[in-house]
Design brief:
Length: 521
């Protein structure tokens, strides 16, 4: 990480400053930390700016409650500075994880005990005792007739759907569903009858459909880890119009790949593959150069974890495929990689988010019809070290000024939002948004599980829910026309793991997926 290169100079700077700060600023301390000195808080603020900001956007103490900072986030961040034992009851770290490799953590603490205590004091003393996530929420309506919920005539014991997608390319009018535990990927026709399947060893979490073939992303081990257990595989059409899945990978040794996209990046006539290796503490965005004869060479664009969603677009119309990508771990950001030819890319950061946002998804879409792609973005991953409801989770829209500079124009709060897809679902000429949540407030606001935002113009959206959608815990979603009627349908995938907040609904008894057919009404 970047701070390792700066350790010596930063320690010298801190020593030169005497490690003592005096402050005339009056802090608003929370009720449980009135005893903390202003000097320690000011020192912690300065040290956090030096060290934390070297790896990600500096978070403000107000973004989390005191317990989340003191018992969750900061104990996990300590090892990044070589601090593995500071009197915590439990200390989550991967110090002995061989998959990280040598030298991941500093061999010696970068900070002294008093310095680390000052950072703790800064975040715990100035953070709120609790977050009121739902304070300004708008009621979500239920009178939506645009979609009709269709439950498939199949059931699993405790469905763990990790992929749900429409195939409009290889087999138009079909759905493809993958389940973590079932070890099968199944194709359904538009009547939701299973018509084909193939066996897998590791979970398939993404499929890039092409006309006669597809590429699948096999995540390996789905729970957070740093191992190289993932792989990419070919899926082709057989002579009998069945899915022919190659158990032999195109390439392997990937760190939890969540998306693989085929494109010819170097314009040599062969499809290469862009790989989002989400990983955990290690990961990467890379492209696999197709050398022919089933051989690929890996080229790393950014070797950090969290690459979760990418789009290949020729945004500047020069004939070369460019890349938009969201990183959703630590340094949470959206980047543009402009293809300069011969396998070279120029990096530009478009948007950056605090590391506690829990970024989950984004899309490119022109909301204001000015000819430039805007960004719809969702955040809501709540599985890490601050498992509280957050007022900034939800759906955002950022408008593009035409020079790839983005300004926030819209926000709708949804606890634990996991995906937001922009389409003209009601065929009125503007873009609506369909969203799902995997960490909804199931006890008091279960309708967050699926929210449809109807566009009423000028960035005003009216929220709706479909009651049938409250039966599942939705991890994945896709949009497409399953029956060829020209209207965009939705499919939701139920991953029925226990929630952050106890739910009155037993999601394991819900359907493995839910089809929302667009009625046009």
């Amino acid at each position: 990480m970047k701070y390792r290169k700066r350790v010596a100079s930063v320690i010298a700077l801190v020593s030169f400053m005497g490690l003592l700060f005096t402050s005339c600023e009056q802090y608003q301390k929370n009720s449980t930390h009135q005893h903390v000195s202003d000097g320690s808080i000011e020192m912690g603020k300065q040290l956090a700016a030096m060290y934390c900001q070297s790896c990600h956007l500096l978070p403000d103490p107000s973004l989390l409650d005191t317990k989340s900072w003191g018992k969750g986030v900061l104990p996990m961040m300590g090892p990044m500075l070589g601090i593995f034992n500071y009197g915590y009851e439990t200390y989550p770290s991967y110090k002995y994880d061989h998959d990280l490799g040598e030298g991941f953590y500093p061999s010696q603490p970068v900070l002294t005990g008093p310095q680390w205590q000052s950072i703790l004091d800064y975040y715990t003393a100035l953070s709120p005792d609790t977050l009121d996530a739902n304070k300004n929420d708008v009621a979500i309506g239920t009178g939506l007739s645009l979609f009709s919920a269709v439950i498939p005539p199949v059931s699993y014991d405790s469905a763990h759907t990790c992929f749900a997608g429409f195939d409009s390319v290889m087999y138009p009018g079909t759905l493809v569903i993958g389940d973590v535990n079932k070890k099968f990927v199944v194709r359904f026709n538009n009547q939701l009858q299973p018509i084909d399947s193939f066996k897998i060893i590791n979970p398939v979490v993404d499929i890039d459909f092409k006309k006669d073939s597809a590429v699948t992303a096999n995540i390996g081990v789905i729970i957070p880890n740093n191992g190289r257990y993932g792989s990419g595989h070919k899926l082709i059409t057989s002579a009998t119009q069945k899915m022919n899945y190659s158990q032999e990978p195109m390439f392997d040794s990937l760190r939890r790949p969540v998306q693989i996209t085929a494109a010819d990046f170097n314009k040599d006539g062969r499809n290469d593959c862009l790989v989002c290796e989400y990983g955990n503490l290690r990961g990467a965005l890379s492209w696999m150069e197709n050398l022919g004869n089933n051989k690929f060479e890996r080229h790393v664009l950014r070797e950090v974890p969290g690459a979760i969603k990418a789009y290949v677009r020729d945004y500047n119309k020069d004939g070369l495929p460019d890349i938009y990508v969201l990183f959703a771990q630590a340094d949470e950001s959206i980047f543009l990689y402009t293809n300069k030819g011969n396998g070279n890319f120029e990096e530009k950061r478009l948007l950056r988010f605090p590391p506690c946002y829990g970024s989950t998804y984004f899309e490119l879409a022109d909301f204001n019809k000015d000819g430039f792609d805007d960004i719809v973005y969702s955040c809501g991953d709540n599985a890490d070290f601050s498992r509280v409801l957050k007022p900034y989770h939800g759906v955002y829209i950022y408008t593009n000024d035409g020079r790839n500079n983005y300004t926030q124009q819209y926000f709708f709060h949804i606890n634990g939002c996991f995906k937001a897809m922009a389409r003209d679902f009601d065929n009125d000429g503007d873009l609506d948004i369909a969203s799902i949540s995997f960490f909804a407030d199931y006890s008091s606001r279960p309708e967050e599980g699926f929210v449809y935002l109807q566009n009423n113009g000028s960035f005003n959206f009216r929220p709706y829910n479909i009651p049938e959608a409250n039966k599942g815990r939705w991890l994945t979603m896709d949009a497409g026309d399953v029956d060829g009627d020209g209207k965009i349908d939705l499919v939701l995938g139920n991953f029925s793991a226990p929630g952050m907040i106890k739910s009155p609904v037993q999601f394991e008894k819900g359907p493995p997926f839910l089809l929302l057919k667009n009625t046009g009404r």
